[in-house]
Amino acid sequence: xxxxxxxxxxxxxxxxGDKGYPxxxxxxxxxxxxxxxKVVCAIIAFDGAEAEPVKKWFSxxxxxxxxxxxxxxxxFIDDNGANSVSMIEQIFGCPHEExxxxxxxxxxxxxxxxxxxxxxxxxxxx
Length: 126
Prior knowledge:
Elements lengths: L4 H11 L7 E7 L8 E7 L6 E8 L8 H13 L4 E8 L35
Parallel strand pairs: 1-4
Antiparallel strand pairs: 1-2, 2-3
Helix pairs in contact: 1-2
């Protein structure tokens, strides 16, 4: 499957590396490691700043394949004047939010794949 225009433009921004603040961060989330049902883009204005603004997209299909979402992410990045872009291409964890969708300190009852799994490596922790 050929890569779309907006994903190519986003990859171009990623390849530029660290150009300083503000930094846009992009992360994909899903019930398991096969389909990203949520993507979050956040802007970090300066070192130590809270990520703000934050925009989220949701879908029943894999958002990593949505040209429309990549177009909207690019617009969000440009609208917020980000100089650098950082993205984790693999799925980075459960799309549900601890303390909002399920109690703090517990595992998501809907996304059992992530229970006991390291979100950075995808490996089960012992």
